[in-house]
Amino acid sequence: MSAVVYDESGTTAHLVVEPGPWGCTTHEGLLAGIERAATSRDVLAILVSGGSDFGVQADTDELAGADPGRLRHILRTMASLPEAIRMSGKPVVSAIRGRCHGPANQFQMVCDLTVAADDAVFSLGVTRGTESRALLGGQWAPRIVGEKPAREMVLLGRSHGPEAFRGFANEIVPDRHVDATAESVCEEIASLSPASQRMVKASISYGTDLLFSSMWQAVDYEVLARIEKASDSDSDAPPPPLAEVAHETISIERGPNSVQIEFANMSPRELHAALQVAESDPDIRSVILRPGGEFRPGSGREETKAWHGVLVTLRNIAKPTITVVSGEAQGAVTELCLVSDLALATPEARFGMDAVRRAAPPPAWGSQLLGRVVFERRARTMGLLGRTMDAHEAQRWGLVNWIVDGQELGSFVDWLIAECAELDPVGVQMAKAGLNFGANTAYPSMGLLNELRS
Question: Residue 397 has what DSSP assignment?
Answer without folding.
Answer: T
